[in-house]
Amino acid sequence: MITMSKVDLRRVDLNLLVALEVLLEECHITNSANRLNLSQPAMSRTLSRLRMAFDDPLLIRVPNGYERTERAENLAERLKGTLSQIRLTFARPTFDPTTASGVFKIGALDYAELVVLPAFMRTVTDNAPNMQIEIVRKDFYSIDEVLDGSADLSIGIVPDTAPKHCMVQKLFNDDYVCAMHKDHPLANSELTMDGYLEYPHATIHTGPSHGSVIDDTLEQLGHKRFIAKRSPHFITSLMTLEESNLMQSTAKRSALALQKAADLVVKELPFPMKPVTISQTWHARHNHNPSHIWFREQVALAAKAPPDDGGKRISRSPVTIEAGTPGGTPAGL
Questions:
Q1: How does residue 193 score in pLDDT terms, banded at 50, 70 and 90?
Q2: FRET partner for 54 with CA separation of 20 to 30 A, picked from 48, 89, 186, 189?
Q3: What is the 3-state secondary structure (H, E, C) of the chain?
Q4: Does the predicted TM-score (pTM) go above 0.70?
Q5: Residues 251, 175: contact at Cβ < 8 Å?
Q6: pLDDT at position 17 over 70
Q7: 198 in Cβ contact with 297 (< 8 Å)
Q8: What would the mean pLDDT of 182-187 be, rounded to a whole number?
């Protein structure tokens, strides 16, 4: 019974395996040299090194050229699988959305689901018909779902101190506006500071500090509004302004997206507010993943659609993505 001894791969030049593959296929030194763009003397030296490495002639002279030894015959079969696996190991991963399947998870509040994901879903449905998108509930100022792996991507406001090991890409800025039902007493009037403060407000509360930016600004101006209702839901809160004197200061894109359905009147605020920046965030471990790159590109494209686009499609032809430059800005890396 023949036993195999262990080999210290640190002492083996694995490049010789490529030459061995060609030599065993051609059984001809000159032809092998031509395939490998080597001179005939260089190919002969390579064969000598192979013979020493395997302690076997590998190719022996016959009247019509060379033929493989018994060891070489066994190596030829084994070599095909070995080199195939090595090539696969070094091959760049690719992603073809037209044939891909699986689930891509996005952490998002209903705001992002309303203003970004409709256009995103049209693109995914058109170009990646077998992929599923799952929305993972998130806190406005948290990307825990990205850090713990329960979501592939998070869309929303990024904290001032971005978490380590994450990448951030800005999608767009959204202005604050004031929304009210069309039957509100101020619906047909210019919105002044006095009018803004006269009526009760609905506000969004999705985290320990969300909603306070407007109140902080008002406090700096020496004013205070009365908040009659707090809600964690952008869509529901705007949809339920009907039959009340409530007004809601909210992101412009969400107000415009629901303006027709909720019979809203959207007005500029009577005081200056910095726009809110919406970004997508992902863990650095996904940065060079071709499928992840493709989905991030689609989110970025969808975010460019105007908020009142009426459902227009974002044209995106199917492509195969290779691992490469992923884009995005490191956050705390």
A1: very high
A2: 89
A3: CCCCCCCCHHHCCCHHHHHHHHHHHHCCHHHHHHHCCCCHHHHHHHHHHHHHHHCCCCEEEECCEEEECHHHHHHHHHHHHHHHHHHHHHCCCEECCCCCCEEEEEECCHHHHHHCHHHHHHHHHHHCCCEEEEEECCCCCCCHHHHCCCCCEEEECCCCCCCCCEEEEEEEEECEEEEEECCCCCCCCCCCHHHHHHCCEEEECCCCCCCHHHHHHHHHCCCCCCEEEEECCHHHHHHCCCCCCCEEEEEHHHHHHHCCCCCEEEEECCCCCCCEEEEEEEEHHHCCCHHHHHHHHHHHHHHCCCCCCCCCCCCCCCCCEECCCCCCEEECC
A4: yes
A5: yes
A6: yes
A7: no
A8: 96
Instruction: Give CA–CA dist 183/246, Å, rounded.
Output: 11
**301 has a pLDDT exceeding 80:** yes
What is the third-level CATH fold of 95-173+276-331? Answer: D-Maltodextrin-Binding Protein; domain 2 (3.40.190)
Per-domain residue ranges of the chain: 12-91, 95-173+276-331, 176-268
Q: Which residues pair with 104 in a beta bridge?
A: 133
CATH topology of domain 12-91: Arc Repressor Mutant, subunit A (1.10.10)
Q: Which CATH class is domain 176-268?
A: alpha beta
Per the structure block, which two tokens stand in for 82? 């070995």
